[in-house]
Every structure is written in structure tokens, then in C-alpha cells.
Amino acid sequence: MLNAIKGSGLRFLWLAIIAFIADQWTKQAVVAHIELYQAIQVTPFFNLTHVHNYGAAFSFLADAGGWQRWFFTTIAVVVSGLLLWWMKGLKRDQVMLSVAFALILGGALGNVYDRLVYGYVIDFLDVYYQQWHWPAFNIADSAICVGAVLLIIDMFKNGDEKNASVQEQ
């Protein structure tokens, strides 16, 4: 069992755990120290702002009536299961892909925890320019985005290598 983990992408599960813990720790700090809708200016383009997101990315379906909580939770749980299965099948040298899946997994589980416990996701990172604000996000969302970028990089980097080896055959 341990050899199966060491030889697969599952050896990066520690990264998913760190992403989850960092996400939950920062959210609890925000809840404890920042009132709902309070904004604390950190720089001229960045605030810490405590908000609740009842929808998905960019508050998609936030006003849908409550069913979206279970819909997004179900999707995240299914995707998390798929990520674990894919990670188990990765080869030892597929490091970038393993790291990408681990970050996406940790972020997804961080937001799932919020949906299950609170019924919404706690967001607090607010980037803006003048009056235009990017939708608030959190550490889980950041982990998911970094993981997605790594997936795209891996696709371009290793996709070319796979295509070249197929063409040689």
C-alpha cells in the first residue's frame, strides 16, 4: 500500500492537506476578526473583505434559492473522487500533474467544507482598481486556480512530448 502511494501522484496528498488547512485557518481568522462586509484596506488595490458566497465562482447562481448549495457540493465531491483516482494512476515522474491535482483537490475540499457547515463559502480576498472589484475569493479558490494553471502548463509541456512519441511510432 505504501509503495503504491510512493509511486503515484498520491504522494502529493500532503499538499492538498496543506491547502485545505491554510484555507480553513484563514477563513476562521477572517470570521473572528473581520465583521461581515467590513473591508480593511491593505494596499490601494487590495482589501481584506469578509463576504459570503452562496453560489460558485463569480457568485454564479448565488440567488438560486438554496438548491445550488447541494449541487455545487455534489459536483465538488465527485470531482474530488475523480482527482484521487487520477492521482493514484499517475506515474512517479508526473510531478506537475500530481501537484496540480493536489492543489485542486485541497481547494475543492476547502470550499465543500464551507458549503456543508455554513451553507456558503467564506471569501475575503478583494482585488480592485478604482471602483471595479474582482469578485472576492479565498485560499481554496487560489489553490484551484494555481492547480488549473499547472494543468494547462503540463498539457502544453507534456502534450507535445506525447504527440512527438506517437508520431515517431
Automatic annotation (TrEMBL):
InterPro entries associated with the record: Peptidase_A8
Enzyme Commission number(s) of this protein: 3.4.23.36
Membrane topology note: Multi-pass membrane protein
Record-linked Pfam families: Peptidase_A8
GO molecular function: aspartic-type endopeptidase activity
Protein keywords: Aspartyl protease, Cell membrane, Hydrolase, Membrane, Protease, Transmembrane, Transmembrane helix
Protein name: Lipoprotein signal peptidase
Organism: Fluctibacter corallii
Encoding gene, per UniProt annotation: lspA
